[in-house]
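Q: what sequence does this backbone want?
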């Protein structure tokens, strides 16, 4: 059995897709959802799937490594960031080197980095009159959106598309690909 912990800050639509995908899976279990916000929608979704939840405080996350013992207790093989807005601290990147994945709603290295999240990304794509955008699934290092790219998928952007239209197209790609890519990454882990 390989165990996943999902880190998420928001509504959790990707986390839901991941939990749906792995619910019937013979070799992989989503064991834990960790959030930095106690009112995050993702916590309710996790509970509806019978997945344990943990809410972390900023001070504990950055000034202690307490989260490592939680991850060890659940024997977590892979950390998946699904809309997690805090930078992952160095001690966690080191402990889970090559075993933390993030999804970003653009074609990195374009439209990445601090402050590039949510609608800011799609508004920037629109403002630049891009003809395509997409998703990037990548390994996480100690800098925002800079780890090794594992997978990208693209979609067309037309001049008529609003930033909301772009967000919708990108979300379709996220939901379609993220669970499968996680599955493939897990299959390659020792
Ligand atoms: C997604 O667009 C993802 O790419 C980004 O945060 C968003 C999370 O959305 N990292 P949701 O909470 O899964 O709906």
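A:
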């Amino acid at each position: 059995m390989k165990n996943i912990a999902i880190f998420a800050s928001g509504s959790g639509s990707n986390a839901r897709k991941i939990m749906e995908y792995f619910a019937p899976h013979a070799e992989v279990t989503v064991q834990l959802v960790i959030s930095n916000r106690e009112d995050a929608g993702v916590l309710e979704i996790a509970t509806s799937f019978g997945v344990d939840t943990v809410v972390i405080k900023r001070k504990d996350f950055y000034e202690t490594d307490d989260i490592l013992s939680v991850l060890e207790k659940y024997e977590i093989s892979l950390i998946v960031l699904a809309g997690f807005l805090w930078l992952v601290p160095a001690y966690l990147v080191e402990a889970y080197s090559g075993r933390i994945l993030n999804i970003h709603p653009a074609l990195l290295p374009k439209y990445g980095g601090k402050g590039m999240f949510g609608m800011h990304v799609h508004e920037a794509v629109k403002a630049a009159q891009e003809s395509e955008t997409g998703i990037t699934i990548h390994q996480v290092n100690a800098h925002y959106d800079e780890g090794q790219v594992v997978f990208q998928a693209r979609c067309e952007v037309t001049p008529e598309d609003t930033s909301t239209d772009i967000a919708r197209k990108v979300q379709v790609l996220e939901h379609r690909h993220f669970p499968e890519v996680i599955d493939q990454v897990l299959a390659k882990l020792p």
